[in-house]
Amino acid sequence: METVFDSLVLGFSVALRPDILWFAFLGCLVGTLVGMLPGIGPLAGISILLPLTFGLDATKAIVMLAGIYYGSQYGGSTTSILLRIPGEAASVMTCIDGNAMAKKGRAGAALCIAAVGSFIAGTFGVLMLTLIAPPLAIFALRFGPPEYTALLTLGLIFLAYMSTTSLVRTLLMAALGLLLGTIGIDVMTGHFRFSFNIPELGDGIGIVPVAVGLFGLGELLATPSHQVVGDVKSPRLRELLPTREEWRQSAMPIARGSVLGFLIGIIPGSAHIIASFLSYAVERRVSKHPEEFGKGAVAGVAGPESANNSASTGAFVPMLALGIPTGPVTAVLIAALLIHGIPPGPTLVNDHPDVFWGFVASMYVGNLMLLALNLPLVGVFVNLLRVPYAYLYPLIIMFCLIGVYEVNHSIVDVWIMLIMGVIGYGLKKFGFDPAPLVLGLVIAPILEMSLRQSLIMSDGHWLIFLQRPIALTLLVICVGLLVLSATSFVLHRRDWRAKLAAAETSES
Questions:
Q1: Closest Cα to residue 222, out of 316, 328, 69, 99?
Q2: Where are the domains of the chain?
Q3: CB atoms inside a 10 Å sphere around CB 191
Q4: Which of 111, 256, 313, 325 would be 331's cystine partner, CB 3.0–4.6 Å?
Q5: Cα–Cα distance, 87 to 24 (Å, whole number)
Q6: Distance CA 86, CA 215 (A)
């Protein structure tokens, strides 16, 4: 512990230098703005600004780029809560209850809880990164393709089990997402699949147009016309802060989201996205009032927002300790280190302690900066709701179109967004939850790759999943969840029939 303390002292001596503080602030500010703009996302923001870091030293470059990454997790919640448009893919779950709270006049409270939850989770993640990065990274190294396949399968089934809607409906939406995820070039054979000879679909269907279409346009289409011209009351000062009851309701979801997010974050994949989905599912399952979810539940904002920020921090564990990227964003950050002559991996701590510990310490400072940036602006953000819907909705559609087009400068993405908007409208009308569809689309490439790699390793024998202890354990948990769900369905059906029979007997 003394060694860690001494190392942190070294880190803060680097992170608190005025020039480092400036680049940390710049990264946090840009990250917040990037998160708020639909379609941009942290990957695009970091990629655009990467060339600007060539003249900087490695510490300044990695501090600024990392600030964009975890700052975007903060900013993504703003448009999700106020406009029901996920500014960033990890904010998809925040749309559901965050926007419902805004419609009840609690937009300020939702933004406040999101900011504080993000700060607590981010700080917790950095603390865990400081203390237990090496052993966790070593454990994550034991995961091969069979383990990833089993883990992602568990993620889908766990989400379906935790959902209060029908298990079959949830799995159906996830399966549709997986199906959409197979569109594009087969990475192993190079063949185009299900692309209808449209070159723009070679890279597959993007998450951004799907998420913005389902949760942005879908919401607009489903909104009754009388609300479009309705009056919006100006928020009062006391409505900008959460009540004591709302703080109490958000305490445990923030704690659970912080732990769950960090544990998921160290596993390669789109961890911050998956963490927010699972956190929402867990909160809905453990809640005493699950019927409130989707209608403005505080836990539906606090849990996912905490989870995606904690997962973003957890993703730095294998990146810094092993040099293994856990996703596209960390891959770009590794590239930034390599460009500046700093090889990430086990030698980073010993060979470049100022870079490693300066980066870790800057994340403590960065979380404080983000809190200071976001809380004072809550009142400004909430004033967006004072704009009449008749003017606001065309602006929302315009930002959706521009944001989606700017990702790849592709008109095909715009058409995908429009189609998904119509599908989102239909799903809402028929009571389907579109969130599992997005999750299926996110994990489809990783799941397919790990499954095919597993079968190549075993010459096509499926027994490989039963011969590896970690994969077997995860699959046993999958089967257990399906059995529990089936048992619950049968018992519920039996109770329903018994009540119906009793009612018929009493009438006769």
A1: 99
A2: 2-461, 468-508
A3: 8
A4: 325
A5: 21
A6: 7
